[in-house]
Amino acid sequence: MLVLLLVFIAALAFGGWGLWQLFSPTSGDPRAQIAALRRENANLRDDAEQLQQRVATLTRSDQISRDANRDLQGAIADRDEEVAGLRADVAFYERLVGATAQRHGLSVHALRMQQQNGPAWHFTGTLTQNLNRGAISEGVLTLSIEGTREGKLQKLAWTDLRQQSAAPGVVYSFKYFQQVEGDVFLPAGVTPAKVTVRLQPRSGAAIEQSFTWAEALRGQTVAE
């Protein structure tokens, strides 16, 4: 009986040890290792998401910086262009009305041609005079264009360019200078070579000044 009791106790002890080995969270337990790996994997996912968020934030910040720098460069370029234009205006006024300005009568200081839709062209003529200070220059402006079409010389009068048989000229009236604008129409197939501005004062002889087509496209002045 004593032997059987000892055997029964040993069996209980062995069974308890087996259950403890099976369910205890030891380093050798596969389930514990799986749980630890799952926790580590979750931590790695969290770290990866944080890294991705940081990369996205840095990328966005870099793009914002690039956009801001591009806008700043554009603003600087615009300001430089504005300053250059103002300096050119000051130089123009000095030549026209300054104490050392040379006196000259009515003239076309500059002409610019800009293409619009289809055959339409917009012109801007800068008229000046400082010979008679205080006097008002009045009259009308017209254009004529010379070029070629199919190898033949073509001369287009104001009425041709305006597509009206009795087209009136553009009126001007100024003391020192004025920009006069209007539109003309080039017939299809015409290659322009020269444009002539004709000023007909209210009193006195007409004045004509010619510009090559390339000069007119650049808006070049007579002094350039």
TrEMBL record:
Coiled coil in keyword set: yes
Note the InterPro entries from the entry: DUF6776
Question: Which UniProt keyword terms apply here?
Answer: Coiled coil
What Pfam families would the database entry show?
Answer: DUF6776
Coiled-coil segments on the chain, per record:
34-61
- Can you name this protein? Uncharacterized protein
